[in-house]
Amino acid sequence: MTDLPLLLTTLSVWIIPLLLAITMHEAAHGWVAWKLGDDTAKMQGRVTFNPTAHIDPFGTVLLPLILLMTKTPFLFGYAKPVPVNFSRLNNPKTDMVWVALAGPGANVLLALLGGLLLNLYIVVPDMMADWYRDNLINLVRINAILAVFNMLPIPPLDGGRVAVGLLPRNLAMPLARIEPYGMWILLGLIFLLPMITASLGLNFNLLFAIIRPPAEFIASLAQALIFI
User: Fold this and answer.
1) Tens of pLDDT along 159-176?
2) CB-CB contact of 76 with 146 (8 Å)
3) Cα–Cα distance between 115 and 46 in angstroms, integer?
4) What is the rounded CA–CA span in Å between residue 28 and residue 139?
């Protein structure tokens, strides 16, 4: 028989940090775009810390639950993309890069903040201490993974937009044309490729192998801020 309180507690220590990570990520995109000349996200209520403004039914709810239940090596999700009218930015090509970097940058800062807040673990009441610690540990993990995942150079991920903004036109345009197929490429890397390698008797996850080292580096920076 399922222990409902235990199940809800377990889900909460993943859902709360995931919602916080996604909300800060998207709000950061919208805020930087607003400050650089495009108020589209601001006018649509997307420069907010209210997670309901950013939730995507599949990316924020269903995909993380699937990954959690299938016990994949990492947990992540995504929100509704923040609308940005790049033509309204002060310097569209350069500012697009800053708007794209804002989301992963927010995730790195949240991971570091999680490390700092873990220092307060010793003053949290005993009945809440483990829940508090697990939330922050997962906050560090999820934000480290989201920051690295989103910097993969595949449009529409932030790393793809950064690459398009930095590459010369003859390389940027072919990469930009991948965007309509980018999500299918990512779903293939997340689900299909591991299934294929497993069917061949190989215990290898290419996406995890790419994401893990830099994510662990970010997590190690957060860990260095823990003094207790």
Assistant:
1) 999 999 999 999 999 999
2) yes
3) 27
4) 17
Which residue numbers are catalytic? 26
Structure tokens at 222: 């957060």
The answer to whether residue 62 scores a pLDDT higher than 90 is no
User: Which tokens in the block code for residue 198?
Assistant: 């497993």
Band (pLDDT 50/70/90 cuts) for residue 128 is very high
Which residues are CB-neighbours of 179 under 8 A, at least 6 positions away? 155, 156, 160
Give the C-alpha separation, 145 to 141, whole Å.
Answer: 6
> Is pLDDT above 60 for 1?
no
Q: Please say if the pLDDT value at position 71 is more than 70.
A: no
Average pLDDT estimate for 19-29? 94
pTM of structure: 0.89
- Locate the domains of the chain by residue range: 4-223
Euclidean distance between the first and the last CA atom of the chain, given in angstroms as a whole number? 38
pLDDT greater than 70 at residue 74: no
SS (H, E, C) 2-65: CCHHHHHHHHHHHHHHHHHHHHHHHHHHHHHHHHCCCCHHHHCCCCCCCHHHCCCHHHHHHHHH
